[in-house]
Amino acid sequence: MKSVWATQPPVPIPKDSIQRIAKQVTADATKGKSVNVSRDTPLSVEGTVSLFLDAFTRCARCGIRGGFRKEDDDTVDFVAAVANLRATAFHIFPLQSVEEIRSIAGAIVPAIATTNAIVAAAVVQQALCMLGMNERASRFAAPQMVYVRRMPQVRRRPFPEVCGCNASLINNSNNQRNASSDSIHREGARKKRWITDLFLVHSTLPNPPSRTCFNLP
Question: Exposed (0-12), middle (13-18) or buried (19+): which is 195, by Cβ within 10 Å?
Answer without folding.
Answer: buried
